[in-house]
């Protein structure tokens, strides 16, 4: 009889612990601005590695076409957090909508200004883009603002090039190969796919690397980050801390494993059939992933400067960019785990 009661008590204890664990799991919906783009890999990988679950979160990841769609999902209330480009936080501040980035996983934006293979002979520098047709993901996007910033930085009128929306993936590659445009601002894996067919592809600016990013912006220019409304961040500090810990741990995992090991953890549908091309693109992209999760204040200032060049609304808004990001939660990870969040 004692044994039976002992087993019953053990079963009840296990059930209580399991129920307690389930109750402790906070449900969060994260809207991703295009999971197949390598710029968002850390968020997808965090789920693949079980880091969200380990941090006490049950994360439902919604994959959308772009960062603007992910932002709409959060503003509309169908998602809690955006995994997208930080620059939306700055852009929306001009519209008096408070968004706060709390962990940055791309210290560089990964934007690449590429010359169309059939126009390599005539376009030698950014100054040669005046009067040319330049592809961007969509007018008014991060790629568009980046182009306008580079034009102005090189002494040209930001409106001197004709901007054409070509998307970011296969449509952008096709537009470049068919000569529909003279150049384009692209992201990986599209850049690497194009380079595979055209080894002599001319690149005018490549912000996948530290050297070029610092040369263009004077500091790290943050790309992908987790962010939400200031109200949600303020009322869900436990969940924000857990999300931050999961991403910081994932970034540490990325920088301590080989590209092959990283690729092996990614969903098959995202890697695709051509694993060699994906691996090559991943190797090009890894340097842009943050090692710490922290925002570089100069990088945030650079985002404001870029958007001020292309948007009169942002330029006139007198934005306090320090209100659009916080390093509080990343610093807390360092305190609790001893991780180096320098």
Molecular structure report:
This protein has 342 residues and is of the alpha/beta class. The radius of gyration is 22 Å and the shape is globular. The chain contains 17 helices and 10 strands. Helix 6 links the parallel strand 6 and strand 7. The protein has a 5-stranded mixed beta sheet, with helices on both faces. Strands 7-6-8-5-9 form a 5-stranded mixed beta sheet, sandwiched between helices. It folds into 2 domains: 2-109 and 221-337, 3-Layer(aba) Sandwich (D-Maltodextrin-Binding Protein, domain 2); 112-206, Periplasmic binding protein-like II (D-Maltodextrin-Binding Protein, domain 2, 3-Layer(aba) Sandwich), CATH 3.40.190. Residues 1-23 have low confidence and may be disordered. The N and C termini lie far apart (59 Å).
| Strand portion | 5-15%
Unreliable runs: 1-23
Global outline: globular
Specify the oligomeric state.
Answer: single chain
Structural class: alpha/beta
Which radius of gyration do the C-alpha atoms yield?
22 Å
CATH class of the largest domain: Alpha Beta
The CATH H-level homologous superfamily of the largest domain: Periplasmic binding protein-like II
List the keywords.
10 strands, single chain, 17 helices, alpha/beta, five-stranded mixed sheet, D-Maltodextrin-Binding Protein, domain 2, disordered N terminus, 342 residues
């Amino acid at each position: 009889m004692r044994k039976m009661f002992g087993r019953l008590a053990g079963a009840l204890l296990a059930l209580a612990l399991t129920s307690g664990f389930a109750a402790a799991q906070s449900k969060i919906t994260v809207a991703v601005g295009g999971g197949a783009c390598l710029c968002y890999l850390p968020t997808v990988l965090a789920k693949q590695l079980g880091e969200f679950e380990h941090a006490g979160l049950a994360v439902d990841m919604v994959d959308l076409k772009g960062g603007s769609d992910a932002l709409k999902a959060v503003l509309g209330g169908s998602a809690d957090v955006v995994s997208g480009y930080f620059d939306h936080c700055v852009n929306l501040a001009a519209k008096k909508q408070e968004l706060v980035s709390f962990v940055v996983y791309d210290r560089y934006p990964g934007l690449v200004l590429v010359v169309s293979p059939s126009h390599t002979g005539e376009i030698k520098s950014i100054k040669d883009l005046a009067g040319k047709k330049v592809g961007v993901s969509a007018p008014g996007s991060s790629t568009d603002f980046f182009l306008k910033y580079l034009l102005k930085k090189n002494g040209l009128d930001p409106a001197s090039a004709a901007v054409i929306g070509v998307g970011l993936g296969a449509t952008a590659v096709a537009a470049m190969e068919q000569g529909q445009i003279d150049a384009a601002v692209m992201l990986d894996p599209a850049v690497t796919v194009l380079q595979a067919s055209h080894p002599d592809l001319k690149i005018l600016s490549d912000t996948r690397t530290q050297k070029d990013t610092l040369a263009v912006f004077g500091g790290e220019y943050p790309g992908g980050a987790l962010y939400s409304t200031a109200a949600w961040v303020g009322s869900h500090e436990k969940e924000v801390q857990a999300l931050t810990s999961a991403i910081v741990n994932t970034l540490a995992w990325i920088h301590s494993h080989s590209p092959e090991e990283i690729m092996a953890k990614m969903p098959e549908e995202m890697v695709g059939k051509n694993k060699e091309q994906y691996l090559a693109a991943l190797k090009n992209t890894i340097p842009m992933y943050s090692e710490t999760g922290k925002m570089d204040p100069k990088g945030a200032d650079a985002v404001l400067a870029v958007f001020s060049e292309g948007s009169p609304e942002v330029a006139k808004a007198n934005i306090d960019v320090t209100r659009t990001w916080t390093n509080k939660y990343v610093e807390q990870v360092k305190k609790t785990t001893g991780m180096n969040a320098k």
